[in-house]
Amino acid sequence: MFVMTLTLVSDFSSVLLDLKDKDIILSKPVTGKTLSAAKTLHIMIYMLYMTIAFIAPSLIAGLIRQGLLFFIVFFIGIILMDIFIVVITALLYLLIVKFFDGEKLRDIINYFQIALVIVMSVGYQVLGRLFNISEFYGIEYTHKVWHYIIPPVWFGGPFELVLKGNRETYIIIFTALSILVPIISMIIYNKFTSAFEYNLQKLNETSQNYKSKTKGFNYLLSRLVCRNKEEAAFFRSATNMMKKERNFKLRVYPSLGFSLVFPFIFLLTSLKEWRLEGTAPIKVYFSIYFIGFMIPRIISTIGFSGNYKGA
């Protein structure tokens, strides 16, 4: 789920939000609803191919070790998960394009993509460690209501229900959520595809009141830290790129977010080795240097721009 979400955000958001083909295709007897459905189907098929490439070894091993029933449950669960990821992401984009327009809309979409990447990556790391931390403190797993809002838990329900015969109420609810939520979300998205395509036109709009608020500060800062006009010009160019280049922010900002969060994740992992009578591992603080690993990536990325012809 983590890998597929990152793939969708990085590779296919441009397909969902594409406006280049609309003027050509919609001039034919094709509705916006049909165009949106075609784009969504294209994304789902490609993601299904990628998913199969990732899980084919697991499917084969599961078929050999666990049997045909496990294979069927696993494969159907993967298909439902892909549908859920694509449709929920599209619905979130629908909400964004409905309430914003112009430059603000482009910025909101960019920050939404960055936040989604960070949340999925951090959640992937944290959820996998929760059980280890619980075992360390001697806490047994007990079902909580908030578990219903964690989609990966839903898709574990069918395995417990079908393969192990666990018919507890929360297992049945998880199984129902894993089946019904993707289907219902797809029905909802299908109902609002026309509105989605209509609101996408806002991406072509330019906000008249959109002005840079930090131009004066950047100019003043360049005067303070740069030794000559040439250096100041390059400084302002790099600053404007980091501030306005959306592709740059999508490539770099998630890495910055990881560098701030991952040291704490590593610190939580090291708790397993602590003892009540002992002290924390001496070398735990080395995880802080993880922040420094991101600096070369940022420096190397600054040299590339989607609008290089304007340089």
TrEMBL record:
<keyword id="KW-0472">Membrane</keyword>
<feature type="transmembrane region" description="Helical">
    <location>
        <begin position="169"/>
        <end position="189"/>
    </location>
</feature>
<feature type="transmembrane region" description="Helical">
    <location>
        <begin position="288"/>
        <end position="308"/>
    </location>
</feature>
<protein>
    <recommendedName>
        <fullName>ABC-2 type transport system permease protein</fullName>
    </recommendedName>
</protein>
<feature type="transmembrane region" description="Helical">
    <location>
        <begin position="108"/>
        <end position="127"/>
    </location>
</feature>
<feature type="transmembrane region" description="Helical">
    <location>
        <begin position="70"/>
        <end position="96"/>
    </location>
</feature>
<keyword id="KW-0812">Transmembrane</keyword>
<feature type="transmembrane region" description="Helical">
    <location>
        <begin position="250"/>
        <end position="268"/>
    </location>
</feature>
<feature type="transmembrane region" description="Helical">
    <location>
        <begin position="43"/>
        <end position="64"/>
    </location>
</feature>
<keyword id="KW-1133">Transmembrane helix</keyword>
